Amino acid sequence: MKITRLSIKNFRGVSSAQLHFDGHSLLVGPNNVGKSTICEALDLVLGPDRLNRFPPVEEFDFHNANYLTEPTAEGEAAVPIPIRIEVVITDLNAEIENRCGAHIEFWNPAEKRLLNEGEVDAANPPAIVSCIRLETVARYNPDEDEFEAQTFFSHSPNEPDGQLRPVRKDIKRLFGFIYLRALRTGSRALSLERGSLLDIILRTKGVRTGLWEKSIKRLRNLDIGADAADLDPVLQDIEKRLARYIPTNSPNRATKLHVSQLTREHLRKTMAFFIAMSKDQDHVPFQHAGTGTLNTLVLALLSFIAELKPDSVIFAMEEPEIAVPPHTQRRIADYLLQKTTQAFVTSHSPYVIERFEPEQTLILSRDDDANILARRVSDASGLKGNDYKRYARQGLTECMLGRGVIVVEGITEFHALPVVARRYEEAYPSILQPLEIGGVAFFDAVGESNAPKFGTFFRELGLKTFSFYDFVKRTEANKKKYTDSFDIDCEHPYTGFEALIAHEVPIATQWAFLENLRDTGMNGGTHIPQQRPDDEGVRKITRAALDGKKSAGWAAQLLETCDLKDLPPTITNFLVQVYAEFPKPMDPPPEPEPGAAAAARPPPPPPSPLLLTRPVPLLQKG
Question: What angle (nearest 5°) sits at the alpha carbon of residue 126, between those of residues 125 and 131?
Fold first, then answer.
């Protein structure tokens, strides 16, 4: 079974969303975009125990806490605004079709829609498949002053007056949905609370051990008083004082200590799973085994469940990378992809992201009206699957999760431009928002000819794109590839980044850097004389040194030694354009002083444009 479509209305940070899935789905995007909300929505509809909570939802589960309309006239009652979440499930197994046959509809995968009543004759596989729709409706009940929620079959033709048939808990269990909320689930995964992973395993296997009855009997017969001789006289005194007000007819002691309240539910919450991780260690509660070990134990339980129900396990899993090393992250991702019917995973880890194909990866965004939008990475042109896999760990995934990307052509620029950005951000903190906070990342395209395809890829994913690369004689058609791929396209006027540094950094700064390389023995094969050459000679040595040690980051080191006013204007002019696209948010106006009248104040002026510390000279192509 697979979830094909999810629709959300008025739930948490989402005003509206309609998402389509085709098997395994990796959900990526910035924080607070709605990744966890999607998993929670699936759990509300499919989780067999989710609606057992009281209340099943609360005020802030409604978008902007809006669960009642404003009365249109005085004296009119407010109308509840419901949460509505609906899923369409396809690839139904025989048991679901037998037990839910009256609710089956038909789905057109190519057109991603349900068939209408007049199209039933066209319901021919494989072009058309059977499906079931389930929807959860949650609302505030003014009469009871409480929140209510229930799951229904969206298609209930046998119900009177358009009513919908509720979905029983045992039917929900047939869909095999399990939601792993990162560490929050791990903290109770091996408990015996209802809905825990261990409880799910026992129910799936149909285990009825008589555990609770036997445990309660043994605990009831446990004589705690015998092990607490100093406590017993105090208890007897309490019992005598109690008898003055409440006569007891018990032939023996009227009071007794027990280790628990001796109910099944209480035992479920107190019974704990212990584990020993080494030869010299006694058994300890599993929560004390370490976060990484805990998550690995959870993975073991998930694999157990998947093997018990190989044809109907749907996992929703938040950030499997938390507190586990890269090789375990890859194992978790591979397990979910290979052993589950369908998996929904949220992640920020390149080791997880790289295991999913581009067509399985959905980048989420949210518009100004709180509608969630999803772009499939495979829908972005310009980048082949092999390139995606190759560059996944080299910054591609980091850029995908941001709002903007600066594409450079080589490792030298990749290290050098962030130095200039950081220097300016530190110098102008009241004007500039750091690029990292703005969601802007740098990306090394490994050659200027690769830049257009990455620019196209990022731009079609909705990111602001910027380029910075060397001057090369190009045809008009070839140059158009760059201007079409980037919002701001910067071809600087030099034939190499080393030439840019040599021409725009003051000669004295260059020579001081070269002398330090020579005196510390770090110059390698670059000959640096004892006497300073003329200006052109210094430039020539600088270019040779930087060109010969691109991977050593010498260009970035040289820029670190520059005074702020001496940073290359070609770079600073380019970065000013980037900062303009991601302006620093305005500070709120100061609070009025206590006791002072709140005088009307004009809003503060917008941040002034960044004034460069020296004019840009007429640059020559070098």
Answer: 70
| Beta strands in 91-172, from DSSP E residues, in sequence order | 105-108, 113-114, 129-141, 146-153
Q: Tell me which residue has tokens 């909300």.
A: 37
Alpha helices in 520-553 (DSSP H): 535-548
Neighbours of 371 (CB within 10 A): 15
Short-list 176, 172, 207, 173, CA closest to 192 = 207
Q: What are phi and psi of 618, to 5 degrees?
A: -70, 115
Kind of pairing, strands 113-114 and 404-408? unpaired
422 alpha-carbon distance from chain centroid: 27
C-alpha R_g of the chain = 33
Identify whether the C-beta of residue 360 lies closer than 8 Å to the C-beta of residue 342. no
Cβ atoms of 403 and 30 closer than 8 Å: yes
For 421, the 3-state DSSP assignment is: helix
As beta bridge partners, residue 272 has none
Strand partners, 490: 468
Give the closest residue to 348 by CA, choosing from 402, 294, 390, 295: 402
Give the pairing of strands 440-444 and 342-346. Answer: unpaired
What DSSP designation does 167 have? P
**How many other CB atoms are there within 10 angstroms of residue 301's CB atom?**
19
Residues 6+ apart with CB under 8 A from 345: 24, 25, 26, 27, 315, 316, 317, 320, 333, 336, 352, 356
Round to whole Å and give the CA distance between 525 and 548: 8
Q: pTM for this one?
A: 0.76
Which has the minimum average pLDDT: 66-75, 114-123, 419-428, 592-601? Answer: 592-601
Q: Which two tokens stand for residue 341?
A: 């019917």
Instruction: Give me the mean pLDDT over the 344-371 stretch.
Output: 90
Cα(406)–Cα(494) distance, rounded to whole angstroms?
A: 19
Give, in order, the Cα–Cα distances in Å from 470 to each of 164, 199, 408, 454, 553: 65, 62, 9, 17, 18
Spatial contact of 408 and 416, defined as CB atoms under 8 Å apart: no
* Secondary structure of residue 123 in the 3-state scheme: coil
Per the document, the length of the chain is 622
User: For residue 463, which of 511, 413, 395 has the smallest C-alpha distance?
Assistant: 395
Tens digits of residue pLDDT in 123-135: 788 889 999 999 9
Alpha-carbon gap, residue 314 to 46, rounded angstroms: 10
Name the 3-class secondary structure at 571: helix
Query: Is the CB of residue 316 less than 8 Å from the CB of residue 44?
Result: no
444 in Cβ contact with 395 (< 8 Å): yes
**Per-residue tokens: 21:** 């899935």
Residue 374 DSSP one-character state: E
Cis bond before residue 590 (omega within 30° of 0): no
Name the DSSP letter for residue 564: G
Confidence of residue 606 (pLDDT cuts 50, 70, 90): very low
